[in-house]
Amino acid sequence: MRCLFRFGAGFTALLALAACGSPAPVAPASAPPRPAPTAAPVRVTAATARQVGADELGRVPVLMYHRLAAQPRSVYERTPADFTAELERLAAEDYVPVTTAELVGRRLDLPAGAHPVVLTFDDGDPSAFSLTPQGQPAPGTAVRILLDVAAAHPRFRPVASLYVNEHPFGGDTDGRALRWLAEHHFEIGNHTRRHTNLRTATESAAAAAIAEEDAVIRQAVPGYRPATLALPYGSHPHRDGLALQGPGYSYGGALLVGAGPAPSPCSTEFAPGSIPRIRSQSAGAEAEYGSAHWLDELGSPSGHRYTSDGDPATVSYPRSEGAVAPACASVGLAY
Q1: HSE-up of residue 315 (Cα within 13 Å, Cβ side)
Q2: Nearest to residue 7, comparing CAs of 155, 121, 226?
Q3: Could you give the CA distance from residue 140 to residue 119 in angstroms, rounded to a whole number?
Q4: Nearest residue to 168 via CA among 209, 214, 129, 222
Q5: Which long-range contacts (CB under 8 A, 24 or more apart) does 258-261 make?
């Protein structure tokens, strides 16, 4: 089985800051982020993989956000300044955003030495994303901030996965916001129609909660197929596998609420139905479970962080890592 990792290393910035501090214009949907034309890629060897410290069986931070607020009242809120600082840190440490769908699909194409990070937003809060009357991401929202940071850091790809319920982003009754996200290469994920606790719901009610929101997303964005689910409260349905497969829906991955970094999708430890996430947090109670702690840990010499070899057709890893997952064995390169 081929294990393809396809998103462009070294893609160019889509946005430029407008004069006088006005929001940057957004590239049209017809111009997706992609690398500039280059010569045929040079295949990685054990020597080049060792040189960049490639470890494509390493751990991946999947960061969990809910709301931005000027005065946070819970660990699920961050100030716009804190969020901006975290994105700037990720860019400085050579992280490249990918979506959850790309992670579970093993579609990771990063520059040599770079690290994937998944930015996820639950609940469809207006502080995460909303549109101005002119159809641009509203100033101060997480998506606007992400686009601006990406404009300043060309390798920092402006994508994220937003998990929505019914009437996201303060309404979106006509689906305009969801369509904008899809057109600009953001992932729209399922968070159930009414934020249902799938553990306490009956099997039929749990399946209906997932299927109903899946249908809402498809209706708002014709032709779009949701690929992953964020489990409300991190709770699985009682029946194993129901979160990923049921009447009217089929998903490649399901996200938990928080725990730690996720295994590489080519690791034997990767469980697509239970992908751990890290709560975005730098201080306060339980900060040892937050993103600042885990980014420090991953960046340490013993952090076991996913590091790209720069070759999307090969999965390189130190021989000491052990076995690669069977789905990636044919393209594995131990050194």
Answers
A1: 28
A2: 155
A3: 17
A4: 129
A5: 258/64, 258/234, 258/289, 259/289, 260/59, 260/289, 260/294, 261/59, 261/60, 261/61, 261/62, 261/294, 261/298, 261/305
| This model's pTM is above 0.85 | yes
310 dihedral zone (left: phi>0; alpha: psi -120 to 50; beta): left
Residue 4 and residue 297: Cα distance in Å, rounded? 28
Q: Minimal CA–CA distance to 154: which of 104, 105, 101, 114?
A: 114
Structure tokens at 276: 């751990």
Lowest mean pLDDT among 15-24, 119-128, 174-183, 271-280: 15-24
User: Rounded distance, CA 284 to CA 264, Å?
Assistant: 29
Q: What is the pLDDT of residue 259?
A: 84
> And the tokens for 133?
């009357």
